[in-house]
Amino acid sequence: MKVSRPLDRGARRSANYAHPRALQRPPRASSTASARAYSPGLTHFTPIESTLGGLLIGSAAALLLLTNGRICGVSGICGGLLEGDVGWRWRAAFIAGLLLPGLIGSRLRPELFAWEIDRSFVTLAIAGLLVGYGTRLGSGCTSGHGICGLSRVSPRSLVAACTFFTAAITTHLLTTYVLFPGGGL
Question: What distance in Å separates the CA atoms of residue 119 and residue 65, rounded to the nearest whole number?
Fold first, then answer.
């Protein structure tokens, strides 16, 4: 019979994310701090909330297509807003609709938003620019290709969505288990 040693508080909190082999060694201080910094406490399986969220996203995408004839690709909507395209009002309203619920929620239930981001502004800005470059390179983002493109049975969107998720999973596995074991990036 194998006896396992108890995990410290930080490892227990991040146990939902760690590979079983990673739990056999004590976590580094940085990994425990990162787990605390990025864990808002909403990590439980939530099938009802997830289903409702998916229905709302799908309904919003369908309504935008049916009422405006526009595809709900967030990078395209933001790009059109920044480039000053005709129809900037609906784009601004769409982006405000993405941002305002988080702002309102943080005022109504601040305990749900009580986590820190332990990365510098420069790191976050570079990450944002890389995401923006990737969406331009891929001719759209996961919302445009993954939600709207796949529902229109677009072969290009299928290839794009498979590429996005393959790259994301590979990056996660490399940074978590190969480059920075136990600590993440």
Answer: 37
pLDDT digits (tens, 9 = 90+) for 65-86: 898 888 888 888 888 888 877 8
**Tokens 């709302």, residue located:** 56
- 118 lies in which domain range? 46-179
Rounded to 10 deg, the angle between the 74-83 and 121-137 helix axes is: 100
- Inside any domain, residue 31: no
Identify whether 12 is part of a domain. no
Q: How many domains does the chain have?
A: 1
pTM of the model: 0.58
Query: Is 87 among the domain residues?
Result: yes
- What is the per-residue pLDDT across 139-156, written as a single tens digit (0 to 9) for each? 888 878 888 888 889 999
CA distance 168 to 123: 18
C-beta of residue 185 within 8 angstroms of C-beta of residue 173: no
